Amino acid sequence: MAIYDIVVHKDHMLRQINELVDFSFVLEELSNKYCLENSRNAVPPIRMFKYLLLKSILDISDIDVVERSKYDMSFKYFLDMAPEASVIDPSSLTEFRKLRLQDVNLLDMLIQKTVDIALEKELIKSKSIILDAMHSKASYNQKAAQEFLMEKVKNVREAVYQFDESMKGKFPSKITSSEVKDELTYIEQVISVVEKKAHLVHIPAIKEKLNELKEVVEDYSEHLHFSTDSDARVGHKIADSSFIRYKTHLAMNDERIITAAVITTGDNSDGKYLQDLIEKSQNTGMEIDTVIEDSANSGKDSIRNGLFGMQMQGAMAIFAVNLKRIMILMKDSK
Q1: Quick one: three-class SS letters along 155-213?
Q2: How far apart are alpha carbons 318 and 311 in whole angstroms?
Q3: Cα 71 to Cα 323: distance, rounded to the nearest angstrom
Q4: pTM score
Q5: For each of the chain's 334 residues, which pLDDT tens digit applies?
């Protein structure tokens, strides 16, 4: 700890999160996922959860968040590792992310945890909540998937060009097809080109973008099957415009802390979940005497800005957003 006290200063975000949150709740929620009597002990669930939180905050791949934990002392401190301790295999994190958390109601649990912290620190003064809904593209929306994949492959190409401009003529030609399957084939060709260049593939700035791209391709290939998202529904904004998306219904207090969320298919109306959002917010311990719904002056932009840029959607991302907001409020209150 003496080493960490020197290299991880008191204002470091990860030290603040460690001091702010009692992560023992992770053990309670995942107790039925682990056997404590047979075989060797698993990697501590709290450490695995913290890996995912780091991944969400920094928007990096499983491989890169594990790689950084080899040498980044702030990561080792946050993960409760000795400086010389060996790290996990990235495949363990991938399994934890996809399997261990599958049946846990993370969304409500993590929102509850952050609201508890805010109430304990007496940061919530308001008794009003703002309700709004955001559309998020369904996984098999072809245009959305292509745009997302194109962004990731563009990041790789730009990183490569910074170190070797001669590579501009060595990548495969960009495709014009709107099919995600064709896009994935093109991306696999780009990955293959980079991996064959020994002088490039180990440069950290390139390697990180490449690993992120490979993880996206793996997740898409495994979960999308190009058009199998049966839970998505077609919604309509105007008569001649349709979309196949999910909708995230949110409640947020005046302190801009998210107090409730409901994720539905795109065809569900906003007002349908008003009562659920109010009750979920009340269940966190929030006192509510005013509800503002979907109004031009309701603070809707605050909700959008608070979530803007989150790449890892869902519970971990909302948890990270709320923690950052709590730390800002604590700093402002001093």
Answers
A1: HHHHHHHHHCHHHHHCCCCCCCCCCHHHHHHHHHHHHHHHHCCHHHHCCHHHHHHHHHH
A2: 11
A3: 25
A4: 0.73
A5: 788 888 899 889 999 999 999 999 888 887 776 665 665 567 888 999 999 999 888 888 899 999 999 999 999 999 999 999 999 999 888 888 777 776 567 788 889 999 999 999 999 999 998 887 654 443 334 445 567 778 888 999 999 999 999 998 899 888 777 677 788 888 899 999 999 998 898 898 899 899 988 888 887 766 554 344 444 444 444 433 333 345 678 899 999 999 998 876 555 555 677 888 999 999 999 899 888 875 433 444 444 443 333 334 567 888 888 999 999 999 888 7
d(C-alpha 10, C-alpha 23), whole Å: 19
SS3 69: helix
Cα–Cα distance for residue pair 142/147, rounded to 1 Å = 9
Indicate left, alpha or beta for 202 from its phi (over 0: left) and psi (-120 to 50: alpha): alpha
Give the DSSP per-residue string, 71-116.
H-HHHHHHTT--TTPPPPPHHHHHHIIIIITTTS-HHHHHHHHHHH
- 3-state class percentages of the chain: helix first, strand second, coil last, to nearest 5: 55, 10, 30
Contact 122, 274 (CB under 8 A): no
Count CB atoms within 10 A of the CB of residue 151: 12
- Residue 297 in tokens: 């002056």
How far is it, in rounded angstroms, from Cα 326 to Cα 316?
15
| Whole-number Å distance between alpha carbons of 265 and 96 | 26
In this structure, what token pair is assigned to residue 115? 């609201």
- Return the sign of the alpha-carbon dihedral for residues 300, 303, 309, 311: negative
